[in-house]
Amino acid sequence: MQTESDTIESIEAVRARDRSHLWHTWTPLTVDRSELMLHHGAGYRVWDADGKEYIDGTSSALSAVCGYAHPEVTAAIARQLGRLHHFDLSRGSNEPAGLLAERLASYLPPDLSRTLFVNSGSEGFDAAMLIATSYWSHLGMSRSRMVTFALGYHGSTLLSRGLSALPRVAHPFRAPLPVTRVELPVAPREARAPAALPLLLDAFDRAIGDDPADLPAAVVVEPFLNVGGGIVLPPGFLSGLRERCDAAGILLVLDEVFTAYGRSGRMFACQREDVEPDILITSKGLTSGYVPLAAVTVQQRIYESFGRDPVIGGIRYGHTNSGHAVGCAAALATLDVLERDNLVAHADYFGDRLRTRLAPLANTEEVADVRGLGLAVIVEMTSAEKAQQVLDRAQERGLLLRRQGPQGHCVLIAPPLTIDIEGVDLIVARLEQALADVAG
């Protein structure tokens, strides 16, 4: 029989092993991540190894749209594991991959109908850049320049890092693509105002340019600048970009790795303005984070252009686990839950409720702004130090949050879409208590 002292010793052994051997992602070496040693989760709650309960305001890795231990998603994974875990899509196929590609096409306009599966959003972005530049090559044109936000974040591979100007993704290597980065012409808290729209579009007009010999291959943006500071863009921005891309004859690539599958209050954030991209990249919520998977969905004309590839007459890209059968089964189950439980509408409703409840905080000394899109809510603090203090105090009170922004001064709240009124009210109460701790 295990005693209380044995339990404490066991937990300490787990933490010691973590500190001795595990390299934690995106973490200073002076920070001990083993202090928050999570053991299990259910719904929008998680418990650590000491038995303490938390409301997870981070959705695991911003991906757990269906929450933890969802019986339908876990059952789908188990069923597929018992049948066929995977087969190389360059040699054959599996049924879940085809079903998922068909399912994604059903949510999108008819011509946005072909999907390439990879393992992560970063890989999806790399694939999208290869597809965009190859498309122009197939048409006999040489275009590789990309236009994007300086504060955009598109992944952690060399290519995706090369598009961003965020300090955290800087690298010592030669940039693989020419990039024109658009600086935000207003403060982040002002970007969502209608007055910011012409300033933003003018900035992209200048970045695109009017030299026929130097047209970009694509304009690449996130509908919500998540890592860049939770920046909400003004209504009409995406449709304005679509018009400019059409006029210039260039591609529009939307990075919806974070915003897709309900997070934005729509299945895809671009649906808020009925914008049809040429290439759409999605990941995180696709499998609710249960299995790594990402999707790159393209217009049929782009897909067909690869018949002109001079080497194999198709796309020269893929990974060992591209279109993994278990991942696709998890995604199909996730989409079933999203539809049956109306979680996309839930995200819109509870996101609005959360912003409304937290809006008065913007009148306090520590908080500069409260904003968000769907169930992604940003509390912009007046300094990175105060943001970290809020995270620490909130964790002590049983609420897990994360920091965003180039200076790390923004607190992001993005719980699973399965959150309910009780959960939202607990988030508000615990965050207000954490802010009071910091202020007092």
Distance between the termini: 46 Å
Q: Per DSSP, what share of the residues sits in E-state strands of 2 or more residues?
A: 15-25%
**CATH level-3 fold name of the largest domain:** Aspartate Aminotransferase, domain 2
Low-confidence stretches: 1-6
Largest sheet: 7 strands, mixed
| Strand segment count | 17
In CATH's first tier, which class of the largest domain applies? Alpha Beta
Mean pLDDT: 96
Structural domains: how many: 2
The coarse overall form would be globular
SSE order, one letter for each helix or strand: HEEEHHHEHEHEHEEEHEEEHHHEEHEEEH
Radius of gyration: 22 Å
Instruction: Assign the structural class, choosing from mainly alpha, mainly beta, alpha/beta, alpha+beta, or little secondary structure.
Output: alpha/beta
Q: Bin the helical content.
A: 25-40%
What is the H level of CATH, i.e. the homologous superfamily of the largest domain?
A: Type I PLP-dependent aspartate aminotransferase-like (Major domain)
CATH architecture of the largest domain: 3-Layer(aba) Sandwich
How do the strands of the widest beta sheet line up side by side? 4-12-11-10-7-5-6
Enumerate how many helices there are, as a single number: 13
